[in-house]
């Protein structure tokens, strides 16, 4: 539960999946984005670019191979803020099962899904909007949000009980992704020139937060007018995205262009969140991204967020603050930051800019 967050949404909730079934050649006005925010065809030379694909199996190789892999990750963090990982240790069958289990959930009858309807007070459950600003232009997506850690927030009653294997699959999937996140946190710490446990300790050691948001993007008759998810950077620490390998949709902002990510088979897409941008004193930056929708295909993706303990003040690591690079951000807990974002909804990088220390 987030303090000072309202108990109810400001307007009646309309499920986008339901709209998708009745909207034939138009979409409601409240989903139409301003011209400047709409998805457009990329014509730049970056059109064929793709976020780097990195083989994590090479971290078990000889010293030269390890050094090369660390370098690839460092470059990806500096150049993109995003990278894909393969040979990451998570069972491919489990990845497929997790995605398809959730796809089945979103195809359940609406009255079953509505039993899990969420509120802005916790966001946990079945939802269709982010942010509580009345009259906001909405995104063309539904989602399911749940807490994995801390255990005090992990409430199986708020997890779907259908399909029958859903809770078991979520639990196993979460355990495997926690291992992968811890491995990546060590890599990021080493690449920043810190002790390998530095970032993990700053997050709270073993006492950290993790949550899952499953995104469902229904077919849209006018995909050029709207977005599945508006431009934003992730407010937490690090995100592991399991994309829909059959339908591209994630776009990453690079050099003022929007690059559509081409998912590698059974890869996770990793991105830096705002909290690591703060801890690294902006050596690593969280990067704007958004989601486009499709006129002929639905899309399902699973975003696993690895976050600091909610009440620990997050500020630049003291080792990364120097006379020629003073601390760029004032301390703020993740709870405080998350509330700020939930009031506003996705707004590009404006949240991060607001954290900067006065100069």
From TrEMBL:
GO MF terms, alphabetically ordered: dioxygenase activity; jasmonic acid hydrolase; L-ascorbic acid binding; metal ion binding
Protein keywords: Dioxygenase, Iron, Jasmonic acid signaling pathway, Metal-binding, Oxidoreductase, Plant defense, Vitamin C
Cofactor: L-ascorbate; Fe(2+)
Superkingdom, taxonomy of origin: Eukaryota
Keyword Ligase: no
Coiled coil location: none
One annotated GO biological process: regulation of jasmonic acid mediated signaling pathway
Gene3D superfamilies per UniProt: B-lactam Antibiotic, Isopenicillin N Synthase, Chain (2.60.120.330)
Catalysed reaction equations from the record: jasmonate + 2-oxoglutarate + O2 = (1R,2R)-12-hydroxyjasmonate + succinate + CO2
Record family assignment: Belongs to the iron/ascorbate-dependent oxidoreductase family.
PANTHER family in UniProt: OXOGLUTARATE/IRON-DEPENDENT DIOXYGENASE
Protein name as annotated: Fe2OG dioxygenase domain-containing protein
Species in which this protein is naturally found: Lupinus angustifolius
């Amino acid at each position: 539960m987030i303090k000072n967050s309202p108990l109810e949404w400001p307007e009646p909730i309309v499920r986008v999946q339901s709209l998708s079934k009745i909207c034939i050649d138009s979409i409601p006005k409240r989903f139409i984005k301003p011209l400047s925010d709409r998805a457009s065809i990329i014509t730049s030379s970056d059109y064929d670019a793709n976020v780097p694909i990195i083989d994590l199996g090479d971290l078990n190789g000889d010293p030269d191979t390890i050094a090369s892999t660390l370098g690839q990750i460092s470059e990806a963090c500096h150049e993109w803020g995003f990278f894909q990982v393969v040979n990451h240790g998570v069972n491919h069958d489990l990845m497929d099962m997790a995605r398809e289990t959730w796809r089945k959930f979103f195809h359940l009858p609406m009255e079953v899904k509505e039993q899990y309807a969420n509120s802005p007070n916790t966001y946990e459950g079945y939802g269709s909007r982010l942010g509580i600003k009345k009259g906001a232009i909405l995104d063309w997506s539904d989602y399911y949000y749940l807490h994995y850690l801390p255990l005090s927030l992990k409430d199986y009653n708020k997890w779907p009980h259908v399909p029958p294997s859903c809770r078991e699959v979520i639990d196993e999937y979460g355990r495997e992704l926690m291992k992968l996140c811890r491995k990546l946190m060590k890599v990021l710490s080493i690449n920043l020139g810190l002790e390998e446990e530095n970032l993990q300790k700053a997050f709270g050691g073993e006492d950290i937060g993790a949550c899952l948001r499953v995104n469902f993007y229904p077919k849209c008759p006018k995909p050029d007018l709207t977005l599945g998810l508006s431009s934003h950077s992730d407010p937490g620490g690090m995100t592991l995205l399991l994309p829909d390998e059959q339908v591209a949709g994630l776009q990453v902002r690079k050099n003022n262009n929007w690059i559509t990510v081409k998912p590698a088979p059974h890869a996770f897409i990793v991105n830096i969140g705002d909290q690591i941008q703060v801890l690294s004193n902006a050596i690593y930056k969280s990067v704007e991204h958004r989601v486009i929708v499709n006129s002929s295909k639905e899309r399902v993706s699973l975003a696993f967020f690895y976050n600091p303990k909610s009440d620990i003040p997050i500020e630049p690591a003291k080792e990364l603050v120097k006379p020629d690079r003073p601390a760029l951000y004032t301390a703020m807990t993740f709870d405080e930051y998350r509330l700020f974002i939930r009031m506003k909804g996705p707004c590009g990088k404006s949240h991060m800019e607001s954290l900067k220390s006065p100069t």
